[in-house]
Amino acid sequence: MAIRVLLVDDQPLLRTGFRMILEAEGDLAVVGEAGDGLQAIDQVRALQPDVVLMDIRMPRMDGVEATRQITGPGRDGPAKVLVLTTFDLDEYVVEALRAGASGFLLKDAPAHELVQAIRVVAAGEAMLAPSITRRLLDKYADHLPSGEEPVPDALHTLTEREVEVLKLVARGLSNAEIAADLFVSETTVKTHVGHVLTKLSLRDRVQAAVYAYESGLVRPGAQ
Asked: What is the pTM of this model?
Protein backbone atom coordinates (compact mmCIF):
# COMPACT_ATOMS: atom_id res chain seq x y z
CA MET A 1 0.00 0.00 0.00
CA ALA A 2 1.12 3.56 -0.69
CA ILE A 3 2.55 5.69 2.12
CA ARG A 4 -0.02 8.36 2.97
CA VAL A 5 1.53 11.82 3.31
CA LEU A 6 0.10 15.07 4.69
CA LEU A 7 1.84 18.29 3.58
CA VAL A 8 1.96 21.07 6.18
CA ASP A 9 3.43 24.43 5.13
CA ASP A 10 2.08 27.98 5.10
CA GLN A 11 3.44 28.58 1.59
CA PRO A 12 1.09 27.15 -1.09
CA LEU A 13 3.83 27.15 -3.74
CA LEU A 14 6.05 24.94 -1.59
CA ARG A 15 3.19 22.54 -0.95
CA THR A 16 2.55 22.35 -4.69
CA GLY A 17 6.21 21.60 -5.34
CA PHE A 18 6.31 18.88 -2.70
CA ARG A 19 3.10 17.35 -4.07
CA MET A 20 4.54 17.17 -7.58
CA ILE A 21 7.68 15.44 -6.31
CA LEU A 22 5.87 12.92 -4.12
CA GLU A 23 3.07 12.04 -6.52
CA ALA A 24 5.66 11.06 -9.12
CA GLU A 25 6.53 8.13 -6.83
CA GLY A 26 4.35 5.05 -7.08
CA ASP A 27 4.58 4.22 -3.39
CA LEU A 28 3.69 7.70 -2.06
CA ALA A 29 0.26 9.34 -1.96
CA VAL A 30 -0.43 12.92 -0.84
CA VAL A 31 -3.74 12.69 1.02
CA GLY A 32 -4.06 16.32 2.08
CA GLU A 33 -2.53 19.71 2.82
CA ALA A 34 -2.57 22.18 5.70
CA GLY A 35 -1.38 25.77 6.03
CA ASP A 36 -0.83 25.88 9.80
CA GLY A 37 -0.57 23.68 12.87
CA LEU A 38 -4.24 23.76 13.79
CA GLN A 39 -5.25 22.63 10.32
CA ALA A 40 -2.58 19.94 10.50
CA ILE A 41 -4.05 18.46 13.68
CA ASP A 42 -7.54 18.42 12.17
CA GLN A 43 -6.24 16.83 8.95
CA VAL A 44 -4.33 14.15 10.84
CA ARG A 45 -7.51 13.18 12.67
CA ALA A 46 -9.57 13.16 9.50
CA LEU A 47 -7.13 11.61 7.04
CA GLN A 48 -4.94 9.33 9.21
CA PRO A 49 -1.70 9.90 7.23
CA ASP A 50 1.38 7.76 7.78
CA VAL A 51 3.80 10.69 7.56
CA VAL A 52 3.32 14.40 8.18
CA LEU A 53 5.78 16.66 6.36
CA MET A 54 5.83 19.52 8.87
CA ASP A 55 7.03 23.09 8.48
CA ILE A 56 8.16 24.84 11.68
CA ARG A 57 7.15 28.49 11.48
CA MET A 58 3.48 28.91 10.62
CA PRO A 59 0.61 31.20 11.71
CA ARG A 60 -1.88 30.32 14.49
CA MET A 61 0.08 27.26 15.66
CA ASP A 62 3.70 26.46 14.83
CA GLY A 63 5.06 23.08 13.82
CA VAL A 64 6.54 22.35 17.25
CA GLU A 65 3.22 22.50 19.09
CA ALA A 66 1.46 20.70 16.24
CA THR A 67 4.07 17.92 16.42
CA ARG A 68 3.62 17.68 20.18
CA GLN A 69 -0.14 17.24 19.81
CA ILE A 70 0.18 14.74 16.97
CA THR A 71 3.00 12.50 18.20
CA GLY A 72 3.94 13.65 21.69
CA PRO A 73 3.87 11.65 24.95
CA GLY A 74 0.77 9.52 25.28
CA ARG A 75 0.02 9.65 21.57
CA ASP A 76 -0.09 6.25 19.92
CA GLY A 77 -1.45 7.21 16.50
CA PRO A 78 0.20 5.99 13.31
CA ALA A 79 1.36 9.42 12.09
CA LYS A 80 5.09 10.12 12.06
CA VAL A 81 6.34 13.69 11.73
CA LEU A 82 9.22 14.68 9.47
CA VAL A 83 10.22 18.28 10.17
CA LEU A 84 11.32 20.62 7.39
CA THR A 85 13.89 23.18 8.47
CA THR A 86 16.68 25.59 7.59
CA PHE A 87 19.75 26.22 9.73
CA ASP A 88 18.17 29.54 10.71
CA LEU A 89 15.56 27.60 12.70
CA ASP A 90 17.77 25.08 14.48
CA GLU A 91 16.47 25.90 17.96
CA TYR A 92 12.96 24.98 16.86
CA VAL A 93 14.17 21.65 15.47
CA VAL A 94 15.50 20.62 18.89
CA GLU A 95 12.10 21.38 20.40
CA ALA A 96 10.32 19.47 17.63
CA LEU A 97 12.48 16.40 18.27
CA ARG A 98 11.68 16.58 21.97
CA ALA A 99 8.02 16.93 21.04
CA GLY A 100 8.08 13.61 19.17
CA ALA A 101 9.24 14.27 15.60
CA SER A 102 10.93 11.31 13.91
CA GLY A 103 13.53 13.40 12.13
CA PHE A 104 14.26 16.50 10.15
CA LEU A 105 15.25 17.50 6.65
CA LEU A 106 16.48 20.72 5.09
CA LYS A 107 13.96 22.50 2.87
CA ASP A 108 16.48 22.72 0.05
CA ALA A 109 17.30 18.99 0.12
CA PRO A 110 17.29 17.24 -3.27
CA ALA A 111 14.03 15.57 -4.30
CA HIS A 112 15.45 12.06 -3.90
CA GLU A 113 16.45 12.81 -0.29
CA LEU A 114 12.94 14.04 0.51
CA VAL A 115 11.42 10.88 -0.94
CA GLN A 116 13.87 8.61 0.87
CA ALA A 117 13.34 10.44 4.17
CA ILE A 118 9.60 9.89 3.99
CA ARG A 119 10.11 6.19 3.31
CA VAL A 120 12.56 5.86 6.21
CA VAL A 121 10.26 7.60 8.68
CA ALA A 122 7.21 5.64 7.49
CA ALA A 123 9.11 2.41 8.12
CA GLY A 124 9.51 3.39 11.76
CA GLU A 125 13.14 4.47 11.56
CA ALA A 126 14.49 7.93 12.35
CA MET A 127 15.80 10.44 9.86
CA LEU A 128 19.08 11.54 11.44
CA ALA A 129 21.60 13.00 9.04
CA PRO A 130 24.93 12.81 10.93
CA SER A 131 26.37 16.05 9.57
CA ILE A 132 23.24 18.06 10.38
CA THR A 133 22.81 16.42 13.79
CA ARG A 134 26.41 17.15 14.76
CA ARG A 135 26.24 20.77 13.62
CA LEU A 136 22.92 21.22 15.37
CA LEU A 137 24.16 19.89 18.69
CA ASP A 138 27.50 21.69 18.45
CA LYS A 139 25.62 24.96 18.05
CA TYR A 140 23.74 24.35 21.29
CA ALA A 141 26.63 22.87 23.27
CA ASP A 142 26.39 25.61 25.89
CA HIS A 143 22.83 24.58 26.69
CA LEU A 144 23.67 20.89 27.15
CA PRO A 145 25.13 19.19 30.25
CA SER A 146 28.85 19.69 30.87
CA GLY A 147 29.44 16.02 31.61
CA GLU A 148 30.04 16.75 35.30
CA GLU A 149 26.42 16.21 36.31
CA PRO A 150 25.40 12.87 37.88
CA VAL A 151 24.58 10.18 35.33
CA PRO A 152 20.80 9.57 35.19
CA ASP A 153 19.80 6.41 37.03
CA ALA A 154 18.14 5.05 33.89
CA LEU A 155 21.53 4.78 32.16
CA HIS A 156 22.65 2.28 34.79
CA THR A 157 20.00 -0.14 33.52
CA LEU A 158 21.85 -0.44 30.20
CA THR A 159 24.50 -3.04 29.54
CA GLU A 160 27.97 -1.95 28.42
CA ARG A 161 27.16 -2.90 24.82
CA GLU A 162 23.83 -1.05 24.92
CA VAL A 163 25.66 2.08 26.07
CA GLU A 164 28.04 1.69 23.12
CA VAL A 165 25.09 1.39 20.75
CA LEU A 166 23.39 4.45 22.26
CA LYS A 167 26.55 6.53 21.74
CA LEU A 168 26.72 5.48 18.09
CA VAL A 169 23.03 6.23 17.58
CA ALA A 170 23.69 9.71 19.00
CA ARG A 171 26.40 10.19 16.39
CA GLY A 172 23.79 9.55 13.68
CA LEU A 173 25.02 6.13 12.56
CA SER A 174 22.61 3.75 10.85
CA ASN A 175 22.12 0.15 12.00
CA ALA A 176 24.41 -1.05 9.22
CA GLU A 177 27.14 1.41 10.22
CA ILE A 178 26.83 0.48 13.89
CA ALA A 179 27.03 -3.21 12.98
CA ALA A 180 30.23 -2.60 11.02
CA ASP A 181 31.72 -0.52 13.84
CA LEU A 182 30.99 -3.15 16.50
CA PHE A 183 31.57 -6.21 14.27
CA VAL A 184 28.10 -7.62 14.89
CA SER A 185 25.06 -8.27 12.70
CA GLU A 186 22.39 -5.69 11.92
CA THR A 187 19.86 -7.95 13.65
CA THR A 188 21.92 -7.76 16.83
CA VAL A 189 22.08 -3.98 16.56
CA LYS A 190 18.29 -3.76 16.12
CA THR A 191 17.89 -5.86 19.26
CA HIS A 192 20.21 -3.60 21.25
CA VAL A 193 18.46 -0.46 19.99
CA GLY A 194 15.11 -1.94 20.97
CA HIS A 195 16.38 -2.67 24.48
CA VAL A 196 17.74 0.87 24.82
CA LEU A 197 14.43 2.43 23.78
CA THR A 198 12.46 0.18 26.12
CA LYS A 199 14.72 0.69 29.15
CA LEU A 200 14.86 4.46 28.73
CA SER A 201 11.17 4.78 27.76
CA LEU A 202 12.01 6.51 24.49
CA ARG A 203 9.88 6.63 21.34
CA ASP A 204 12.58 6.21 18.69
CA ARG A 205 16.26 6.74 17.87
CA VAL A 206 15.85 10.49 17.46
CA GLN A 207 14.79 10.79 21.07
CA ALA A 208 17.56 8.36 22.00
CA ALA A 209 20.12 10.67 20.38
CA VAL A 210 18.72 13.73 22.15
CA TYR A 211 18.72 11.79 25.45
CA ALA A 212 22.37 10.80 24.99
CA TYR A 213 23.38 14.44 24.66
CA GLU A 214 21.07 15.82 27.33
CA SER A 215 22.24 13.22 29.84
CA GLY A 216 25.89 14.08 29.21
CA LEU A 217 26.68 10.59 27.89
CA VAL A 218 27.84 12.15 24.61
CA ARG A 219 29.32 15.60 24.13
CA PRO A 220 28.91 17.72 20.99
CA GLY A 221 32.02 17.46 18.80
CA ALA A 222 33.15 14.20 20.44
CA GLN A 223 34.06 11.30 18.20
From this structure: 0.71
